[in-house]
Amino acid sequence: MGDDFIVETRSLTKEFKGFVAVSDVNLRVRRHTIHALIGPNGAGKTTCFNLVTKFLIPTRGQILFNGRDITNTEPAAIARQGMVRSFQISAVFGHLTVLENVRVALQRVQGTSFHFWRSGACLDSLNQRADELIEAVGIAEYRDTPAGELSYGRKRALEIATTLALDPEMLLLDEPMAGMGTEDVKRTAELIRRVAAKRTVLMVEHNLSVVADLSDTITVLKLGKVLAEGSYAEISTNPEVVEAYMGSGHADTSHGAAGHA
Amino acid sequence: MNRLTPQVILVLALIAAAIVAPFGVYPIFLMKGLCFGLFAAAFNLLLGYVGLLSFGHAMFFGFSAYITAHTAKEWGLTPELAILAGVAVATLLGAAAGWLAIRRSGIYFAMVTLAFSQMMYFVAVQAPFTHGEDGIQGVPRGHLFGLIDLSDTFAMYYFVLAVFVASLLFINRVVTSPFGQVLKAIRDNEPRAISLGYQVDRYKLLAFTLSAGLAGLAGSLKSLVFQLASLADVHWHASGEVVLMTLLGGVGTIFGPTAGAFLVVAIQNYFSEAGSWVTIIQGMIFVVCVLLFRSGMIGVLAPWLKRRGLTG
To answer: In this structure, are residues A219 and A36 in contact, taking their beta carbons and an 8 Å threshold?
Structure first.
């Protein structure tokens, strides 16, 4: 066992009024890897993801982060421990500029967030770091644009810059490529790969092909249960997985459909 | 920061206009407008910058008015101390009501604040010190710092104006402060703010408490201006009126709520002979505003000025 697993869930279960969305899931995410959680619609991916990030409370089971039990920890506290999530719908602060979006993440660590009597100019000391992050995700030219006016792909890039501002040990990405065109998918995949160099990434994805090259480990969920787990090579040849995807009309296990190159 | 930008010039021009205004306009009317303008600006701190619609702000306005009136009349406190006492009580009341209300959002938040303010209304009806239906009448304005006699209308006006300007500067500071940035982030996307590690309830509570304290300051001033604290100030009508003023003027702007307050106060004053028609006129103006300029008077005016290069 050891602590080379950064996140571990034990018999994780979530029931909604008699309907079991996630049932007895034992997930182990190895440190410094990209781990993908995939499955057809209604497989419980997003529920599982929300349980790990504490946005939902599990009915039963345990969640460990760095060996520490976080089953009853608040979502905001998890973020401060180094585990930061993204959202399926791009989550930016629409009325703040790109720069301000990133600074909101930086300023919490600065410790001025309750200082209502101080001038906003004291945040300017964070600009250099914020600019580096904006540059890194390739949206430097939109620095002073309100985030709400950005295109979808750029919003996602901004979201990643904001997440990275917290320098998290672990990133949880909820369908980072959902609703993207082929070009954006490629660019985002590249970005995730770069970001994951010194971190651990757990991502939820709908299409197997998107995560094929990217992931070290893939866990396939079906009807709330773990169907299979392994490398892409193992998963894509697993007859049960193929069946699950074919059965629900998502024959995306082959390369190509979602722009995989 | 201290350069003479068009914005600074505009603010200075407004202040200059406010200084000469009582020579042309009835000062009590102006003071009423400033008091309600401050009340609406305090309310807007919550609605415009945190996205929380409180439907019980009259309890802070009204209770602070009672405390100031009582301490000035019965205990003989000087006006600045009576005002401080009122603001302190409103702030504490805000912390308590906020602590309960921020656990809910949207319509439920509004309902909890309304319920709380109805409870406080009941207290105001029953408690002996408020004198029930009569209210606290004949409140002495006293001598500011023991020196300036506020029974002089002009002295009172400039005192109210000074407090008003200082409060608006304070609100402007709050919304542009690091704390204000977090508030705007919470308003725009609360789950995301949580995922960045912010305990959003603490920020909302602080904003609520600040807003309550400022609403209290407005109520305290009003009780000295009119030398009266009455049930009308704690009634839910006052809570509704402040929503109206803020929306008419422009939510989420610094000057909008004040503009809205002056409009509403002007309608009440100058159309007062129309009797109950005032409410109907108010209602029609509100409907027209909502249909034609949804972002309020200032919300429409500011971009127009910007396009003409008048403001930054």
So the answer is: yes
